[in-house]
User: Which sequence fits this backbone?
């Protein structure tokens, strides 16, 4: 029998993020996936600003950005005639020092997964493919999971199991958890990865007459993602084939000189909106699509899963050190986010389809994304890990995302970002002239922030950007969790220690 501390089931973006989080904390884990080879289908194609901040913390943001594109325009057509071209979706938020990644990046899911796999390998981890969960038995202090690999049955004993295995999660079913929600049977789509010649790769090409047809060039590839809505009155749509996709293009677009070839992934997709009412049953947890599935409106699927894993990883590490009650905060924080995302993405789907019915492609694109979909507004004000007694009248509040700012390193004189200080597995205390000396924790790094260099080795906030981002007064202390959220703001270091797990 193999033994480990955490068994992660599913090696998509969610499972890979969790594995990286555990690996860099030295937590013994095993990551398995039932597929015999890594996913190559585009599926998701947008990584949002908050997920890019997570990638930054993991050290892979640059790899992802380099394989993606920002502010790709949409070219609207009626038949073969071009109507307009503009950047309308995934615009993001205004660029400020507090937000180093203001815009979503268009990038195919396989490249996000590849960056995470490479980082996992650098941290000493690996993915075990062709390994399928067939049974799961919970015990008071461990879980026994039976898997099949190469035709053999094996058992794994683990302290915790995390199901990151998608909408048809075996872990969810075996743990007795259920998805409940709504099936939108009239919202069905043909999806696929194909090659196309005769189209400019500098734009998304969109038709909204007689249904929606989108041809999206996946950046830094020669692949296009094909998306076409299926008429609501088509009770038995044909199976997805290259011939049928060519027929749809001919009927809805009719552009001469365009050829669709070499499909590598074709799918008929029906939109379902559902989630579990619990993220945990004893020693089994769910994350990503295993816990919630929703419409693609807003480009949230891959991102919500990454953020689930990022939230859970440091808490599992703390629990394995003896702080088990911290795990209760996972569902307390992430369930409300999932509900909000499901409601929002469903509303966007309906808005887009209404705009499509009115042949208003620009309105449909503009309604796909906004500040909410960036993930930057996610907050945990009601979390048990949030100091609700310390609510400032202005500035960043406990439970909110800790913003970035550009400061100066006192030793080199070079620019340094607050995110550079946060990067890693530790808690961070920003000391804006307060008294942090009594705070003792191996997991805590303390940085004194001053406005002028004074020889003390403090980070220099010469332009006042850090103070502006946080809205702090002189003498305040800001405690930031390992996942980049503010735990408390106070002027007393005695308030700090109780928020850091022993």
Assistant:
């Amino acid at each position: 029998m193999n033994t480990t501390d955490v068994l992660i089931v599913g090696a998509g973006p969610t499972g890979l993020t969790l594995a990286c989080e555990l690996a860099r904390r030295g937590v013994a884990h095993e990551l398995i996936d039932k597929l015999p080879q890594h996913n190559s289908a585009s599926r998701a194609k947008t990584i949002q600003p908050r997920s890019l901040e997570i990638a930054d913390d993991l050290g892979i943001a640059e790899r992802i950005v380099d394989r993606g594109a920002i502010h790709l325009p949409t070219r609207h057509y009626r038949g073969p005639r071009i109507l307009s071209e503009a950047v309308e979706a995934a615009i993001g938020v205004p660029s400020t020092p507090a937000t180093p990644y203001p815009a979503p990046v268009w990038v195919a899911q396989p490249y996000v997964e590849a960056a995470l796999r490479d980082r996992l390998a650098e941290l000493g981890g690996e993915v075990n493919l062709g390994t399928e969960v067939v049974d799961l038995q919970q015990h008071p202090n461990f879980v026994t999971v039976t898997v099949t690999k190469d035709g053999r049955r094996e058992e794994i004993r683990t302290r915790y199991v995390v199901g990151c295995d998608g909408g048809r999660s075996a872990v969810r079913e075996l743990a007795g958890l259920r998805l409940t929600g709504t099936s939108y049977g009239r919202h069905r789509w043909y999806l696929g990865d194909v090659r196309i010649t005769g189209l400019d790769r500098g734009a998304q090409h969109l038709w909204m007459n007689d249904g929606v047809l989108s041809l999206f060039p996946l950046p830094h590839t020669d692949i296009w993602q094909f998306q076409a809505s299926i008429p609501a009155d088509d009770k038995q749509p044909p199976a997805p084939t290259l011939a049928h996709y060519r027929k749809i293009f001919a009927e809805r677009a009719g552009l001469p000189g365009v050829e669709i070839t070499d499909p590598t992934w074709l799918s008929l997709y029906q939109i379902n909106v559902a989630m579990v009412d619990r993220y945990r049953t004893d020693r089994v947890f769910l994350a990503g699509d295993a816990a919630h599935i929703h419409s693609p409106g807003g480009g949230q699927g891959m991102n919500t899963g990454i953020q689930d894993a990022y939230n859970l990883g440091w808490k599992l590490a703390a629990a394995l050190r003896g702080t088990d009650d911290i795990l209760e905060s996972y569902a307390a924080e992430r369930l409300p986010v999932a509900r909000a995302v499901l409601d929002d993405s469903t509303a966007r789907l309906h808005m887009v389809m209404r705009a499509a019915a009115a042949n208003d492609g620009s309105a449909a694109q503009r309604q796909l994304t906004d500040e909410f979909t960036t993930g930057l507004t996610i907050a945990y004000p009601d979390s048990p890990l949030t100091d609700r007694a310390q609510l400032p009248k202005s500035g960043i509040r406990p439970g909110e995302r800790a913003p970035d700012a550009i400061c100066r390193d006192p030793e080199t004189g070079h620019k340094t970002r607050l995110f550079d200080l946060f990067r890693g597995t530790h808690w961070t205390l920003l000391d804006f002239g307060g008294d942090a000396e009594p705070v003792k924790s191996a997991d805590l790094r303390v940085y004194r922030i001053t406005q002028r260099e004074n020889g003390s080795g403090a980070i220099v906030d010469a332009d006042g950007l850090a103070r502006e981002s946080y809205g702090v007064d002189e003498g305040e202390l800001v405690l930031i969790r390992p996942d980049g959220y503010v735990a408390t703001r106070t002027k007393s270091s005695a308030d700090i220690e109780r928020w850091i797990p022993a």
The chain is about 25% helix and 30% strand. The two ends are 32 Å apart (CA to CA).
